[in-house]
Amino acid sequence: MLKIIDAKVIVTCPGRNFVTLKITTEDGITGVGDATLNGRELSVVSFLRDHMVPSLIGRDAHQIEDIWQFFYRGSYWRGGPVAMTALAAVDMALWDIKGKVAGLPVYQLLGGACRTGVTVYGHANGETIEDTIAEAVKYKAMGYKAIRLQTGVPGLPSTYGVSKDKMFYEPADGSLPTENVWSTPAYLKHTPKLFEKAREVLGWDVHLLHDVHHRLTPIEAARLGKDLEPYRLFWMEDATPAENQSSFRIIRQHTTTPLAIGEIFNSIWDCKQLIEEQLIDYIRATAVHAGGITHLKKLASFADLHHVRTGCHGATDLSPVCMGAALHFDLSIPNFGVQEYMRHTPETDAVFPHAYTFSDGMLHPGEAPGLGVDIDEALAAKYPYKRAYLPVARRLDGSMHDW
After folding, report:
1. Could you read off the pLDDT of 249-307 as tens digits, one per residue?
2. Alpha carbons 254 and 250: distance in angstroms, whole number
3. Of 306, 327, 376, whose CA–CA distance to 348 is shortest?
4. pLDDT tens for residues 146-201?
5. Options 160, 231, 282, 341, the catalytic residue
6. Is 160 in the active site?
7. Burial 95-115 (b: 16+ CB within 10 A, else e)
8. Exposed (0-12), middle (13-18) or buried (19+): which is 29, by Cβ within 10 Å?
9. What are the extents of the domains in the chain?
10. H or E stretch including 275?
11. Torsion (CA) 95, 101, 105, 110 in degrees, nearest 10
12. φ and ψ at 22, to 5 degrees?
């Protein structure tokens, strides 16, 4: 038995808020897990400190599966983004500890590497199509083999995915929610022009991706997918809200553009129908919001049976701890597709020293035991929490729209 004697929650804001759980065992081995829920960080802090940590103390850190089942199956109020993010932090920290005890990187404990590295995609965005293409050219020069393209829409003062800082995009931009304006007709008219120009400039040897961000109805999404078919997208992401999973049947009936969804999913039940009916091509659930590595492995195995590949969320609201966990997971599964990679700021990288590295369009988690990521607590303490909300969106007539 490897008894857990301490578990503390660390909140830091080196440019944006991160929540980290650090578990300590009786022999002094520590493990870290990401517990960041963008715009709702303190909800997870409370859930961990007030409800989960007291039940962790005294348990055997080696019993990862049993501890996962204890907090999920044993809970009457289970599931949801707050509880599953908290559970993910526990799970990641325990895998980190197990790797350190074994003296192996976590991917070796998950069955070993299925590939030499993890293909990642970067984010190119700009106020105009020309600005976006110029950014994409820079990413291609950096070695990226896959690039997400987002551009401003004429007539709208702001557009999702377009940022002032091109390398470190952070959507949580205010102490109260920013209210943006949205027009679906303007967006549908403009977006195909972006990809027509992209293929003209970038050619056909780079994968192109696009995030709709749940802005369309199923039939609108079907129309966009059809309009984008000539440009052979790697995927069209979050085309419509997926609370009603059968909505994707409509999109599938009308377009062959590959579909990706799931960065806000919390469990396999959020995507069961989507996967079983092969209504999507990529599942984007991530370790920090879907219960950790333990649950994500099960979700990936289920997806593999239905020819669905992974494409885990990897924005800047996931700390380097989660990125490390994602890379070990990505490296070890047969049905990996691509990994989102938004680089963290130098301040964040200093707070979270890590072993993973980028080269030739791919990331590798490194060979350090465990997750290969740690937290500098003294440095983290210098960056106190700052309240930050995600924006909301209103239509031109003032009514609310999905953000």
Report:
1. 999 999 999 999 999 999 999 999 999 999 999 999 999 999 999 999 999 999 999 99
2. 7
3. 376
4. 999 999 999 999 888 887 776 767 888 888 999 999 999 999 999 999 999 999 99
5. 160
6. yes
7. bbbbbbbeebbbbbbbeebee
8. middle
9. 4-105, 109-367
10. helix 272-276
11. -50
12. -120, 115
Q: What one-letter code names the amino acid at 5?
A: I
Active-site entry in 207, 213, 289, 344? 213
Alpha helices in 57-205 (DSSP H): 64-72, 81-102, 106-109, 129-141, 184-202
What type of residue is 76?
Answer: Y
Q: Produce one character per residue of 303-333: b if its CB has 16 or more CB atoms within 10 Å, e if not.
A: bbeeebbbbbbbebbbbbbbbbbbbbbbbbb
The token pair that represents 294 in the structure block = 């333990």
Strand bridging mode 18-25 / 282-283: unpaired
Model confidence, pTM: 0.97
Hey, what are 249's tokens? 């049947």
Rounded Cα distance, 133 and 67, in Å: 47
4-105 carries CATH number 3.40.50.720: no
Active-site residue flag, 295: no
Tokens standing for residue 260: 């990706």
Strand partners, 235: 209
CATH C-level class of 109-367: alpha beta
Instruction: Please tell me the distance from the alpha carbon of residue 83 to that of residue 102, in angstroms, as a whole number.
Output: 29
Element of type H or E holding 225: helix 218-228
Closest by Cα among 302, 305, 299, 277 to 286 = 299
